[in-house]
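Lecture notes, unit on protein representations.

Consider one protein chain, 357 amino acids long.
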Amino acid sequence: MAAISFLLLILAQVAKRVAAGHPAFVEKYFSRGLYRVTSRIQLAIINPFRFSFYELIIVCLVLFGLYRFYRLIQSVFRKTFKEESIRFGTQVFSLVCVGLFLFQFTWSLNNYRIPLKDQLSLSVQETSVTTLAKTYQALVQSANEARSMLPAVNSSDSKKIRMILDTAWEGYPPLAQKYSVFHSQRVRVKGLYLFSWIQTVSGYSGVYNFFTGEANINIHPPLVTLPHTACHEIAHQMGINMEDEANYAGFLACMNHPDDLFRYSGYLSALTYTGNALYKQSPEVYTEISALISDEIRADQQEIREFWEKNQKKGAAEIADRLNEAYLKSNNQPEGMQSYGRFVDLLIADYLQDQKI
């Protein structure tokens, strides 16, 4: 068993090295080939269920770990500690090797596919503060309009949360008609009912599980943020692994969604990222344009800030960020956590196509 596990580990690493230099090959034979088959099988299995298999797997792994720890303690008194520790180590090694193999061949090789900007014919280039400011101003105007279409938003509305989870995928069929990188299959987003609190204290709003093919979201943050998060995680399910690309794909899905809440959520997220980027470049221009933001949006932004200030824990967030940073850098996203912010580059390219967004 150990030999087979080691072989799987080697195959996973070889595949990763080969994929890194051949994006067209990965796109044709993995992203649009093997992955589309395996991901559809995953969807067929998990879509009928509202609960998250991801949470179930985590619980099982914790119980397995506790059981194996109990057996180790027990083996000390039975004087079989050496044999038990070898057995435990072998099992952990096998689980890790099989996990890494599945990680590569059921999802992670998508990190090396043709970039989304090329598939959507977006021209991403170095831009000036002026162009960034124009993009931000256009987003402010669009967000104001989208927010005016909404009634009062109740963040504790469980029916709205369920609607978001069940219908988030509806923004993708219009995109699939234009771009083959997307698909129009139904994807049921799963709310994290057991582990949302862990995501909250860590400062995260969603997670994609490669093993089950599930798009999972933290259901605790303010309601207006959930639609874009859900669409972001669905983008990961479609094999759009890069965080900036998933942010942009999620934004496009929100723009094409029939529900006004999704449209506003997409604009609110884009507004936040672009505003943060502009503030770093020119606080004065940022302040001037931000004065145009409606009172309703300001109230939403305040609610979001207060939620994270109250619930996010510094120590947990730092640990989560270090782990995520290491994960991203080891999977073809050298900017690490900064890769989320490259979403702004795609938004600017979108704006420059027709001077609106």
